[in-house]
Amino acid sequence: LLALAAAHGWDVQQLDVKTAFLQGDLQEEVYVQQPAGYGDGTARVCLLRKALYGLKQAPRAWHEKLHAELSKLGYSVSTADPGLYVCSREVTGRRVCLLVYVDDMLLVSPSADAVAEAKAALLGVFDARDMGAVCDFVGMRVERDLAAGTITISNERLINDLLSRFGMEVANSRQVPMSPELVLRRGEGAELDLSRYPYSSLVGGLLYLATTVRPDIAYAVGVLSKYMSCPTVSHWKAAKCVLRYLAGTSRVGITYSAGPAVLHGFCDADNARDLDTRRSTTGYVYTIAGGAVSWSSKRQPTVAASTTEAEYMAASAAAKEALWLRKLLADLDVPVATVPISCDSNGALALLHNPVISERSKHIDVHHHFVRERVALGQVGFKYVSTAANAADMLTKPLAIVKHTAFCSMVGVQLAAAMEK
Q1: What is d(CA 305, CA 295) in angstroms, rounded to the nearest whole number?
Q2: Least confident stretch, 65-79, 174-188, 350-364, 377-391
Q3: Which candidate, 218, 229, 251, 277, places its Cα nearest to that of 407?
């Protein structure tokens, strides 16, 4: 939504519902003890008429209440995401997209009048705070430059919190999150004292960054997360190296720019880089308006017998995400006929466009072959791109400074300016 807003100059406003979980209506009979200091001294209990924070039913009750009220206001839920509602306003006739995350609401529309009308209708139903133009949503800092036509999402606050929590406020910065020469293995080196070094806490914080605003650390954090159960000192040092990288790029995020809102994907795979299991890593990234909107760096479920097979499995995973994004954009009234996906493996492309069985491909699991059907239907289209121009390469392996910086720039993460500062 933010990428489309930047591309087309749409208005973006925010609401915060007050005490959302108290507004749900309970369907079950629930009794609670009398609150301390408010009881009548007897053993009698209270019958709840509305939900309370702490009840298991509270989130569900709030969702049902929200859905019912939004339906009355003319909103329909997206088929791709249950947190997204779409409505055409009666006064302006323009579409309004409402994104809900628990009690935070984001209203996006080409028309500022439509947003104002939608906001007034919502404030008439829910007790909420009008936050104005979006600036902070689900922990992400959202900065909009109307003159330049850009929207940037970042999370400097969480990065600084991590640096402070682990005593690295004045740490020397690094230019890459993980060195290309680094090799990590399970059980190699001295075992880490988890009572002194909270490895899982550090990696958990890095995971949130990697999945929201920092695709540039997705591969490194994915590797580190494999050793959560048995980290060693070398794993701890590698995690702190990622923190050093973030220390020098704490203000960096993803920038979306004005212009054509074209969905474009990249997919890639390494070949058996995981020395513990010899499995490959799938990486894909999709961009709109010059910035990443979806990405993944994930170890493949089975061992690939060849580079072509690993790349073919990556193409299959990328196609699944492309089909979901295609459906989501259709709900946002941005139809996409064919999602273009760039791949740097001629062998995988041959398998995708020529549905034949050979000695090298007949063992590949059937569920990976669905991508051929989608290519034939024209829903996704794969084309060759050189490795030097494949942005997904940074999601499958650690890279040197020049390549890492170039690929980050391709997905809207501008490292060069931050490093100069």
Answers
A1: 25
A2: 350-364
A3: 218
What does each C-alpha distance from 386 to 199, 306, 392 come to in angstroms? 37, 19, 11
Of 144, 176, 162, nearest to 419 (Cα)? 176
Q: Kindly give, in sequence order, each residue whose CB lies less than 8 Å from that of residue 404, ignoring residues fewer than 6 positions away.
A: 175, 176, 216, 394, 415
What pLDDT is attached to residue 355? 65
Q: Which two tokens stand for residue 266?
A: 């990249």
Q: Is the pTM of this model over 0.90?
A: yes
Q: Check residue 362 and give its pLDDT.
A: 55
389 vs 66, 175, 386, CA distance in Å? 45, 20, 5
Average pLDDT over residues 52-71: 93
Q: Is the torsion defined by CA of 253, 259, 262, 265 positive or negative? A: negative
Strand partners, 383: 342
**Is the distance from CB of 107 to CB of 98 less than 8 angstroms?**
yes
Residues in the chain: 421
182 vs 406: CA distance, rounded Å? 21
Of the pLDDT bands very low, low, confident and very high (cuts 50, 70, 90), residue 358 is low
Phi, psi of 296 (to 5 degrees): -155, 140
3-state secondary structure the chain: CHHHHHHHCCEEEEEEECCHHHHCECCCCCEEECCCCCCCCCCCEEECCECCCCCCCHHHHHHHHHHHHHHHCCCEECCCCCCEEEEECCCCCCEEEEEEECCEEEEEECCHHHHHHHHHHHHHHCCEEEEEECCEECCEEEEEECCCCEEEEECHHHHHHHHHHCCCCCCCCCCCCCCCCCCCCCCCCCECCCCCCCHHHHHHHHHHHHHHCCHHHHHHHHHHHCCCCCCEHHHHHHHHHHHHHHHHCCCCCEEEECCCCCCEEEEEECCCCCCCCCCCEEEEEEEECCEEEEEEEEECCCCCCCHHHHHHHHHHHHHHHHHHHHHHHHHCCCCCCCEEEEECCHHHHHHHHCCCCCCCCCCCCHHHHHHHHHHHHCCEEEEECCHHHCHHHHHCCCCCHHHHHHHHHHCCCCHHHHHHC
